[in-house]
Amino acid sequence: MTRRFLTLALIALLAACSVEKVPLVASDVSIKKPMPGMNMSAGYLTLTNNTSQSIIITHVTSPQFGSVEMHESVLEDGMSRMYALGNLTILPGHTVRFEPGGKHLMLMRPSIGADAVTLDFYAGKAVVLTVDTSLQD
Amino acid sequence: MNPRSVLIALVALIAIALGTWTSYRLMSPPPVPRTATVFPASAVLPEFSLLDQYGNAIGREVFTGQWDLVFFGFTHCPDICPLTMQTLANARQRLAESGHDPLPRIVLVSVDPERDTPDVMSQYVDYFGDDNLGITGELDEVRKLTKSLGIYFEKTAVVDDAYSVDHSAIVIVLNPRGEFHALFSAPHDVANFVHDLPIIMAQP
Questions:
Q1: Domain A21-136: which CATH number of 3.40.470.10, 3.90.740.10, 2.40.30.10, 2.60.40.1890
Q2: Is there a contact between A46 and A96 (Cβ–Cβ < 8 Å)?
Q3: CATH homologous superfamily of B37-201
Q4: How many Cα atoms occupy the beta-carbon half-sphere of B187 within 13 Å?
Q5: Contacts of B77 in chain A (CB under 8 A)
Q6: Which candidate from B77, B123, B159 shows the least CB-CB separation from A69?
Q7: Do A101 and B82 touch (CB under 8 A)?
Q8: Where are the domains of chain B?
Q9: Residues B26-85: pLDDT tens digits?
Q10: pLDDT by 10s per residue, chain B, length 204
Q11: A112–B contact, CB cutoff 8 A
Q12: Which of A3, A32, B18, B69 is the most buried (most CB within 10 A)?
């Protein structure tokens, strides 16, 4: 009886694990190779918060770039302006898009010859998401 | 009905059709730009002394002889500037594919000449096409051009010692006489350029 109960409990636990969503998901990731002579590029992606709590991205790092900053391009009174984003709050169940003409990652000082890119998204000292991708032509 | 009557009726029908078509052509308004603003009187540019992407000295005569699409930006701009340059390149490609001739030239004038040397500009504008023109030089000379075209730009701090440059996002159309003829306001869209440029460029 005890064995049967434990088996059922294990099946229930595995089933629960299999349907549990990943807390923060990245999709539509796109980072272009820096243009000739340029030491920076822009990165775009979609972040979805599958949890019931806000996730606050404080900073992003990449071993392949000297620095990664979260920026936003805005059009104000016919002027194109760029602001550095401080903390980025993604509300529960919400999606934030980094896309051309809006929020973007500014990736500076790339390692020479690197095609594979890893991005680590931090909430404070904790990495809440790691994205592995490749530079696009 | 005898053959003669049939012939007369046929001629009459053709005459009516031709008349209707001609009056429709004469009375229908000419196509107008969808988004571009075309000025009733073109403005002459001031004299300036700048450099092209090869380091050659250039003045306002560089804008004569072809239609130019002029954007003011800078190479360290990661988002809007490459996006706009690519939009212009795609529009030019679409016009080429539809057989439009002549094609406008794409011109980038740097609002960050401190970092945008001719060599940097050369690599940047060539990335978006072979026939593009990059312009840089002394800041005071750049301002002569921007002031005359109503372009505003300002250096701003972003993080630490890094800086960006806020700048007007319009695309200016210069006619083959080198005059300020029309402008496209941002945000830019390939379809708008493809629709409006043939209309603008058909004007004297």
A1: 2.60.40.1890
A2: yes
A3: Glutaredoxin (3.40.30.10)
A4: 10
A5: 80, 82
A6: B159
A7: no
A8: 1-30, 37-201
A9: 666 778 999 999 998 888 999 999 999 999 999 999 999 999 999 999 999 989 999 999
A10: 677 777 777 777 777 777 666 666 666 677 899 999 999 888 899 999 999 999 999 999 999 999 999 999 999 998 999 999 999 999 999 999 999 999 999 999 999 999 999 999 999 999 999 999 999 999 999 999 999 999 999 999 876 667 899 999 999 999 999 999 999 999 999 999 999 999 999 987
A11: no
A12: B69
The count of CB pairs under 8 A between chains A and B is: 75
Spell B132-161 as b/e; 16+ CB within 10 A means b: bbbbbbeeebbebbbeebebebeeeeeeee
The single-letter code of the amino acid at B188 is: H
Cβ–Cβ under 8 Å, residues B104 and B70: no
Determine how many CB atoms are found less than 10 A away from the CB of residue A32.
Answer: 15
- CA of A62, closest CA in chain B: separation in Å? 17
Q: Is A137 on the interface with B (CB under 8 A)?
A: no
Residue of B nearest to A81 (CA): B166
